[in-house]
Design a protein that fits this description.
- The protein has 341 residues and is of the alpha/beta class.
- The chain has one domain: 3-Layer(aba) Sandwich (Aminopeptidase), CATH 3.40.630.10.
- 38% of the residues lie in helices and 17% in strands.
- The chain has 8 helices and 8 strands; from the N terminus they run H-H-H-E-E-E-H-E-H-E-E-H-E-H-E-H.
- The strands form 2 sheets. A 6-stranded mixed sheet has the order 1-2-4-3-5-8, with helices on both faces. Strands 6-7 form a two-stranded parallel ribbon.
- Helix 2 crosses helix 4 and helix 3 runs parallel beside helix 4.
- The longest helix is centred in the N-terminal third of the chain and has 25 residues.
- The radius of gyration is 34 Å and the shape is globular.
- 42% of the residues are buried.
């Protein structure tokens, strides 16, 4: 009987082990996978999400002022100098970073100081048609051999404003009806002291880049596709006041002045006459292209003086002009489309 009881106990122990061992393994976390998920899964469709509203790019005066500072750091920037080449590379790099289609036109200009290598820079924001509304500035400074002239207002402020306009256009999600173009002209300034001091018939000593640009339009048969030009020049002064250049196209000028006043800048966009006496918009006018010059010449006491430095310009003035030009562009396009230019 003793051996029989022992046999039964051993067998019972084996059976118990067979039952308990699988249970122990079943309790291991990685093998303990429930047949049904512990958390119920909803079969209801998720609520539709609202699209994130796009924020229109805004003209930044701070960015523009950084562009001014960068140009001044390059030093005086007359044509065919290393400083102007650095400026040109900087402009091109910025335009490409904004997504604009960039091209350059390099040429040699015959000047009273000999042949000078020059280059115009063009950035395009393509529209629904190839017709163009252009905004431009020259980017060279006046040459002096007896003065360090860095040209904060003439032309670093207008170059900076144009770069920031280009950034806003490049970041816009809306395709314009017409192509918007930004142009940076080389060789606007006379190489001699006076504007016409060394000019000859059919060979002015000024506006080398803009005259070259218009001549290329003629050669390529593209004059008619350029529907309007806005020229920025000397428009960053702390005491900004923009009078009307009488040679500018009146309807174009009216649109810009009205836009500026609607933005609250009636003390800036005034009706007094602003004598210019020559600028980069004139080759366009001579070719029959509507053009306007936004310039404060007579009221700027530091014109072509060493004092034309960073402290003479204002972020507020630059933003006023930038915002006004951007507000004017669609109105100009509408006018062109309604009136055939």
């Amino acid at each position: 009987m003793a051996s029989s009881k022992t046999s039964i106990s051993a067998r019972s122990l084996v059976l118990a082990s067979c039952v308990l061992i699988p249970c122990l393994f079943a309790a291991c976390p990685k093998d303990n996978v429930p047949v049904k998920p512990r958390v119920g899964v909803s079969t209801a469709k998720p609520a539709p999400t609202k699209p994130i509203p796009t924020v229109a790019p805004v003209f930044s005066a701070d960015r523009a002022m950084q562009h001014v500072r960068q140009q001044l750091d390059f030093g005086p920037r007359p044509p065919d100098t290393m400083a102007l080449e650095k400026t040109r590379n900087y402009i091109i790099s910025e335009l490409k970073s904004y997504g604009l289609r960039v091209s350059t036109d390099e040429f040699t200009a015959k000047t009273p100081l000999g042949d000078k290598r020059m280059a115009n820079i063009v950035g395009d924001f393509p529209g629904e048609t190839k017709d163009i509304v252009a905004v431009a500035s020259h980017y060279d400074t006046k040459f002096y051999d007896d003065m360090r002239f860095v040209g904060a207002n003439d032309p670093a402020a207008s170059v900076a404003t144009l770069l920031e306009i280009a950034r806003v256009l490049g970041n816009s999600k809306e395709k314009p009806k017409l192509t918007y173009r930004v142009v940076f002209f080389d060789g606007e300034e006379a190489l001699c002291e006076g504007w016409d001091e060394c000019s000859k018939p059919e060979a002015p000593d000024n506006t080398y880049g803009s005259r070259r640009y218009v001549s290329q339009l003629k050669a390529q048969g593209d004059l008619k596709s350029t529907r309007a030009l806005i020229l920025l020049d000397m428009m960053g002064y702390t005491k900004l006041e923009l009078g009307r250049d009488p040679s500018s196209t009146r309807w174009l000028q009216d649109i810009i002045w009205q836009a500026g006043r609607e933005l609250g800048h009636s003390k800036v966009f005034v009706d007094r006459q602003e004598g210019v006496g020559g600028d980069d918009h004139e080759p366009f006018l001579d070719a029959g292209i509507p053009a306007v010059d936004m310039i404060q010449l007579s009221g700027y006491p530091y014109w072509h003086k060493a004092d034309d430095d960073f402290d003479k310009i204002s972020a507020d003035s630059i933003k006023i002009v930038g915002d006004t030009v951007l507000a004017s562009l669609p109105r100009i396009v509408s006018y062109v489309q309604a009136n055939g230019g």
